[in-house]
Design goal:
72% of the residues lie in helices and 0% in strands. By secondary structure, it is mainly alpha-helical. This is Vacuolar protein sorting-associated protein 35.
Length: 793
């Protein structure tokens, strides 16, 4: 309803302005001064309304002020035709109402100044004083805005056509400052005029005025563009006068707006040279002023100044800008006891960005900012406010983004202290950011002390604390992703120095073992492989090449034994078995027979006691057999014991086909390429025959349960045939053509009984055998010639 009334009133006033402007223009065209003044006064009389909102009044003002340009040109033409400008100046003052009279006076005044018939300072002083007659806030603001507009290019500043002596120039400066002061008083008065229930409405209207025409700030823009306002004038006159008005008005909106205007309008070097004066006003502002916006704007502007001008950097050091800003922020935080944590952190965030731009080589300054933030946060404890937590993350991320080097961050003693104030989830998020920085920039953490410092920063990902467990709070997929990041990190904790790297391994282990059973299966494996890599580097040296008894391969392997035991206790027996076997291979490479045997013993115990699932047993047994087959460090007795155990496990698998495959894989344990003492052809054939007996049993059971249509164990027979061919080619004298011929005949017989489900496998095997028979190199062909192939047709 109010909006509709606003539109009606604006439409009526606009129509009246148009009508009177039309008659005014007709009078101008006919050189009728009397009617021109009459209709212009009637047109300007529409601005006396109190019914319109600031937004609608602004539209009306714009339309009326546009029409006054024609009147200004008419006044200029009249003086050119011989009319006395002084008489015109007196004539317009006979207008019946004060507001039209003053608009006309400002219009003719601008022409009067341009004529140079009188000192500009006298006209300016006259106009600014007479405008005091309008004390209605809205009408007075727009009147003075019009005054600033028409006199802007007519001020006697240095370099202008109206330039006078120094005193005249200061008079122009005084005019702008006085107009600014009066406009600010009117703007503030709007807040206190009217009933209390309409306070919010008035505040909204004031904001509209600020955003629409910058009525008050327009004078500061004029000051910023005056050529005569140098650093001395700004420091001694302009800034003190403006700050006096800002502080004394005691209005939240005005103070925030005007401080922002000061920062944006005047040159950067002015701010730098008067930093202590500008910062000194900040604690005097109202507690409700959004001081973080003011100071952050100032620091951002100074940072950009430093980034754009290398020559300016010495000036920052000369005025000690960092110390002044740091001290000022401390004073503001101290003065505004109700300042939210997010706002205080934002202040220190912009101070940190300023420091990183201007003093990127001064880590002590960066650490000092972090320490100041810690001092402020110490009164609040852990942050529960999401906004404040996000600001802390941005605060901690700023040095990371600047240096792109976590090693540099580790030198900041206050960095982990800031992280202490983050809640559990945000602490983890920050830890992930740190890890991602290391991975992205390929940063190497090369000392044990740096490892300790790093794990202190990311401890939220390493262990549970405060009675919280990650897997209860987040999804399994997110948890896996977090821990995978930690696992990748371990490979970046590395040093080529063989004395330092063992220390790094020990420190990593100390931190990782603090994780719960959910984490260990994801974080222990990279630690183990990092240690194994070190062990293989150490292989071939002296017994103790590093002068440290804890840094020998044997000692590190002993450490890994204890580490993997922890994993076995965390219900990750299958993974622990794999790691035991990996460690056994490393011990084999270092020719540590006793250690390797111990790892195999532990792997066998895990297999017997912890692994009960049939599929897991098959997988584990294949790993055991494959690893044992590559071991060369064992003497005959130890190898026989381990081989016998593996063969025994194979025969005890739940499913017969699995038994068959495991037993024929055990044949490889009796035949190794290196060394004649590792070749036992009889035992190889014995394993293969035992596997064939199991395959026969599988075939009988299949025929009994499913009839002749079953392919039964034909595929097992073909697999066995391939094993026989392998050992035939490797030169096992116990593998004869008759044995292979017998097995091939059995395959043909079983294939005829059933639909061939293994036809492709059989065909490929037979084709390979025929191919080898036809080779002309002699050696391999002779072996295959012993096998009769008539059945192939």
């Amino acid at each position: 309803m109010i909006a509709d009334d606003d539109e009606k009133w604006l439409a009526a006033a606009t129509a009246a302005v148009k009508q009177n402007a039309f008659y005014m223009q007709r009078a101008i065209d006919s050189n009728n001064l009397k009617d021109a003044l009459k209709f212009s006064a009637q047109m300007l009389g529409e601005l006396r309304t109190s019914k319109l909102s600031p937004h609608k009044y602004y539209e009306l003002y714009i339309r009326a002020s546009d029409e006054l340009r024609s009147l200004e040109m008419f006044f200029r033409d009249e003086t050119a035709r011989g009319c006395s400008i002084a008489e015109l100046y007196e004539l317009v003052q006979h207008a019946g109402n004060i507001l039209p009279r003053l608009y006309l006076l400002c219009t003719i005044g601008s022409v009067y100044i341009k004529s140079k018939d009188v000192a500009a300072k006298d006209i300016l002083k006259d106009l600014v004083e007479m405008c005091r007659a309008v004390q209605h806030p809205l009408r007075g603001l727009f009147l003075r805005s019009y005054l600033a507009q028409v006199t802007r290019d007519k001020l006697p500043s240095i370099g202008s056509e109206l330039e006078g002596d120094t005193e005249t120039h200061m008079d122009a400066l005084e005019f702008v400052l006085q107009n600014f002061t009066e406009m600010n008083k009117l703007w503030v008065r709007m807040q206190h005029q009217g009933p209390t229930r309409e306070k919010e409405k008035r505040e909204k209207e004031r904001n509209e005025l600020r955003d629409l025409v910058m009525t008050v700030g327009k004078n500061l823009h004029i000051l910023g563009q005056l050529e005569g306002v140098d650093l001395v004038v700004y420091r001694d006159t302009v800034l003190p006068r403006i700050l006096e008005q800002v502080v004394n008005c005691k209005d939240e909106l005005a103070q925030c707006y005007l401080m922002d205007c000061i920062i944006q309008v005047f040159p950067d070097d002015f701010h730098l040279q008067t930093l202590d004066v500008l910062l000194g006003a900040c604690p005097q502002l109202q507690p409700s002023v959004d001081i973080k916006t003011v100071l952050s704007g100032l620091m951002e502007r100074l940072s950009n100044y430093a980034a754009s001008s290398v020559e300016a950097l010495p000036n920052f050091l000369q005025v000690d800008a960092f110390s002044k800003l740091n001290h000022a922020i401390g004073k503001v935080v101290e003065a505004q006891v109700d300042l939210p944590a997010s706002s205080s952190v934002t202040l220190y965030l912009f101070l940190l960005k300023f420091t990183l731009h201007v003093h990127s080589d001064r880590l002590d300054y960066v650490d000092q900012v972090l320490g100041s933030c810690v001092s402020q946060l110490s009164a609040t404890g852990k942050l529960c406010d999401d906004k404040a937590s996000k600001q802390i993350v941005a605060f901690l991320s700023a040095p990371l983004e600047k240096f792109n080097d976590v090693v540099t961050i580790l030198k900041l003693t206050n960095y982990p202290r800031v992280m202490e104030y983050l809640d559990h989830d945000t602490n983890k998020a920050m830890a992930i950011i740190i890890i991602q920085s290391i991975l992205k920039n390929d940063t190497r953490i090369a000392t044990a002390d740096e490892v300790d410092a790093l794990f202190e920063l990311i401890k939220g990902l390493i262990k549970d604390f405060d009675g919280l467990t990650d897997n209860d709070e987040i999804g399994e997929e997110d948890f896996q992703e977090e821990q995978n990041s930690v696992a990748r990190l371990v490979h970046f904790l590395y040093n080529d120095d063989p004395e330092e790297m063992p220390k790094i391994i020990f420190r990593i282990r100390k931190h990782i073992l603090t994780g719960g059973p959910k984490r260990l299966p994801l974080t222990i494996p990279p630690l183990v492989f990092s240690a194994l890599k070190l062990i293989r580097r150490m292989r071939g040296g002296d017994e103790n090449p590093f002068g440290d008894d804890t840094s020998t391969p044997q000692k590190i392997l002993q450490l890994l034994t204890e580490t993997v035991e922890v994993l076995a206790d965390a219900s990750a027996s299958e993974l622990a078995l794999r790691l035991y076997l990996q460690c056994a291979q490393a011990a084999n490479d270092c020719e540590l027979e006793t250690v390797a045997y111990e790892f195999f013993t532990k792997a066998y115990l895990l297999y017997e006691e912890e692994i009960s699932d049939s599929k897991a047993q098959v997988t584990a047994l294949r790993l055991i057999i494959g690893t044992l087959q590559r071991m060369r460090v064992f003497n005959v007795e130890n190898r026989d014991i381990l081989t016998h155990k593996a063969t025994g496990y194979s025969a005890k698998l739940l499913k017969k086909p699995d038994q068959c495959r495991a037993v024929y894989e055990c044949a490889h344990l009796y035949w190794a390429e290196e060394g004649e003492n590792l070749k036992d052809g009889e035992r190889v054939v014995l394993c293969l025959k035992r596997a064939q007996k199991i395959a026969d049993a599988v075939q009988k059971m299949a025929n009994a349960s499913r009839g002749a249509s079953s392919t039964g164990s034909v595929s097992l027979y073909v697999e066995l045939l391939n094993k026989y061919l392998y050992f035939l080619e490797k030169g096992n004298p116990q593998v004869t053509g008759e044995t292979i011929q017998s097995l091939a005949e059995l395959i043909r017989s079983e294939t005829k009984k059933a639909e061939s489900g293994a036809g492709t496998f059989i065909t490929s095997t037979l084709r390979y055998m025929e191919f080898q028979r036809q080779q002309e190199d002699g050696g391999m062909s002779e072996k295959y010639q012993k096998i009769k192939m008539e059945w192939f047709e």
